[in-house]
Amino acid sequence: MKVLVTGGAGFIGSNFIRLILQKYPEYHIVNLDKLTYAGNLDNLSDIEDNPHYQFVKGDITDSDLVDRILEEGADAIIHFAAESHVDRSLYDPGIFVKTNVLGTQVLLESALKYKIGSFIQVSTDEVYGSLSHEGSSTESSPLLPNSPYSASKASADLLVRSYHVTFGLPAIITRCTNNYGPYQFPEKLISLFITNALTNLSLPIYGDGLYVRDWIYVEDHCRALDKILHRGKAGEIYNIGGGNEKTNLEITRLILSKLNKPESLVKHVKDRPAHDRRYSLDCSKIGAELGWKPETAFEEGIARTVEWYASHQSWWQKVKSGEYLEYYEKHYLYR
Ligand code: NAD
Ligand code: DAU
Fold first, then answer.
1. If you take atom 22 of ligand 2, which residue's CA is the nearest one?
2. What is the tally of structural domains in the chain?
3. What percentage of the chain has pLDDT greater than the value 90?
4. How many Cα neighbours within 13 Å face the side chain of 113?
5. 265 close to 256: Cβ distance less than 8 angstroms
6. Residue span of the structural domain in which 31 resides
7. Nearest to 239 by CA among 273, 216, 257, 210
8. Which of 103, 158, 209, 249 has its CB 3.0 to 4.6 Å from that of 205, i.e. a possible disulfide?
9. Which residues line ligand 2 (CB under 6 A)?
10. What is the pLDDT of residue 133?
11. Is 203:193 a contact under the CB 8 Å cutoff?
């Protein structure tokens, strides 16, 4: 099988490529990635010489480039490439629309032209919007995105749906909860807080810290995508979640205790505008239809993650320099 992975130099995409090449060494992967601030070839340095792996530096909005890649043939596209950080979407929504909406449409058009057998849109639970303290979103819940990030992902999902309904493109949408694990850019809660704590920097908690996310270990998400690649049904949507709903304060205290760091590192800062209170997914469909369930208990996943960042300091210290520091200097709005 030949698979085009977009955004494979990012967090989830790089974990996915590694899993696929380990499990199916005969498969061919083409990784199309623009290498934005979040794309990092170090994430895949262990497989860069694998003859079954090819990296193409480029933008998914470049339709000529996407056509040239798909002209060579591909059985499936797994579309990870995106601007993925909610905070950044508050400062610069335009790039989210360009990459997440227009980029997805360019890929859909080319997938149709070259009759690609399966298009998998890697989306997010955030498209369902914020929930109060109870209930979970199913695949048929309404789309109520609140941030430019989630609105751009919801828009892309609707385009994917329309290409399936109107043109018969065999497309599937997946919606996953918050991922954590190795190779996550240190701007998201868990990767930021572990790396800050390791260097005794403060951990900025937005608002009261009682916001709830459902956390999934990245390998479990990748295993779900593997199932969907091989057995998912065109036209369907699959929710994917870890079953670990935690408040941000619970996560923060766990990280501090694992690293033996003091609570005094916690700093309560101004809240994120339009901060979604809680996300929660009903994941019974993927369990019943594809036999997938998460395998990593939260305690085990967080222990592995803390250990990974503690033993890969050169990876994140390189990332947390230059452009990264300039960005944090400039956007200190609610810290
Ligand atoms: P990430 O920010 O770590 O990686 C994104 C990758 O896309 C980077 O390698 C970047 O260089 C690349 N990219 C960005 N713009 C591009 C463009 N125009 N052309 C080509 N490549 C481009 O993101 P992630 O956390 O790995 O998320 C991957 C996907 O999964 C995203 O679509 C995101 O919406 C979705 N998702 C993420 C989570 C999560 O918790 N991280 C949860 C659910 C869904
Ligand atoms: O739910 C899936 C989504 O999870 C993905 O689609 C997004 O790509 C991903 O970025 C993530 O979005 P969140 O906004 O939920 O993740 P983030 O790690 O930015 O924030 C998690 C929670 O922690 C949220 O309530 C905001 C809070 N937070 C975050 C940061 C970075 C803080 O309190 N302080 C922080 O410094």
1. 189
2. 1
3. 95
4. 15
5. yes
6. 2-180+216-242+279-295+323-331
7. 216
8. 209
9. 84-86, 124-126, 177-178, 188-189, 192, 204-206, 211, 213, 248, 272, 279
10. 82
11. yes
